[in-house]
Amino acid sequence: MLIRPRRNRKSQSVRNMVEETRLSVKDFIFPMFLIDGINQKIEVASMPGIYRYSLDLMLGEIEACMKLGIMAFDIFPAYPDDKKDKYATESFNPETFYLKAIHKIKSTFPEAVVMTDVAMDPYSSDGHDGLVENGKILNDETLEILGKMSLAQAQAGADILGPSDMMDGRVGYIRSVLDQNGFTEVSIMSYTAKYASAFYGPFRDALDSAPKMGDKKTYQMDPANYREALIEAELDTNEGADFLMVKPALAYLDIIRLLKDNSNLPIAAYNVSGEYAMVKAASQKGWLDGERAMLESLLSIKRAGANLILSYFAKEYATLVK
Ligand code: PBG
């Protein structure tokens, strides 16, 4: 035999030399759940190790993450039902706690990158990402609300907005609202290929944001579809997105690779709540080695082509490699 691939696997040092993919703490964006109040830290039942924090405790958590090298945070607020309404008005109420929190985080840690989610669901009494009328999700009427939400988030100091709503035309609409108001430096990380997925379950528990009626299949993509992701990518690119995102990650590694090969923009992937919960649950039962499963999952997302990974494992990963 002339060719023996095992020679390149003969020791850890040799394996290190031929390693094609390397994770870094710089790859990560850490999604965090925010609640109103003080001194609150409540674990999400379906996401062991992940908490909903009040702002005071979140600041400490962000500081701890930054010491580990994680610099980017995606803040998701949880609102009680009495703050939700049909038009998601709380999302752009200047007095609301999440906007004040973003301002406080940015003024406390100017070097942190703060990302926010643009979609109606955490603030909507219907639990949908868009405006619901007679059981239908209205597209263009939703854009106006997303525009107000985006402007409020930019005014609060957000660095990157993440439209996760999947309405048509939203990236261009948000871009023009930002630009008209002088926020040309605020970036957009578009949820480009966001699939109608079962893997968002624990996130909807964390925010109590499950749809009250129906599902999200008229706006989120069908898991059966591959080529359609290119239509979304082309639109987002032409509408001015700065990053394209694929979500979820693990069941959509082919989509990550597809966008990587067809775009010159940075590609992000969202290792979602259900993907985190699966690893945690199996490892708590002793059915698999949670640490190795975490590392392998994250590595596979990067190998597929992701430049950035949004993951609830971010802090655990950073702690492990410190
Ligand atoms: C809101 C939003 C969702 C997630 C991120 N932004 C939920 C959904 O679309 O239903 C899911 C994140 C996760 O599961 O970790 N539109």
TrEMBL record:
Lineage: superkingdom: Bacteria
The organism's taxonomic lineage, starting at the top: Bacteria, Pseudomonadati, Bacteroidota, Cytophagia, Cytophagales
Naturally occurring in which organism (per UniProt): Aquiflexum gelatinilyticum
Class in the EC hierarchy, top level: lyase
An individual GO BP term: heme biosynthetic process
KW Repeat (keyword) present: no
UniProt KW Amino-acid biosynthesis keyword: no
Cross-referenced SUPFAM superfamilies: Aldolase
Active site: K194, K247
Originating gene: hemB
Biochemical pathway: Porphyrin-containing compound metabolism; protoporphyrin-IX biosynthesis; coproporphyrinogen-III from 5-aminolevulinate: step 1/4
CDD domains, sorted: ALAD_PBGS_aspartate_rich
Keyword terms: Heme biosynthesis, Lyase, Magnesium, Metal-binding, Porphyrin biosynthesis
Residues that hold Mg(2+) according to the record: E232
Assigned GO CC terms: cytosol
Gene Ontology molecular function terms on file: porphobilinogen synthase activity; zinc ion binding
Xref: PANTHER family: DELTA-AMINOLEVULINIC ACID DEHYDRATASE
Gene3D superfamilies for this protein: Aldolase class I
Protein name as annotated: Delta-aminolevulinic acid dehydratase
Family from the record: Belongs to the ALAD family.
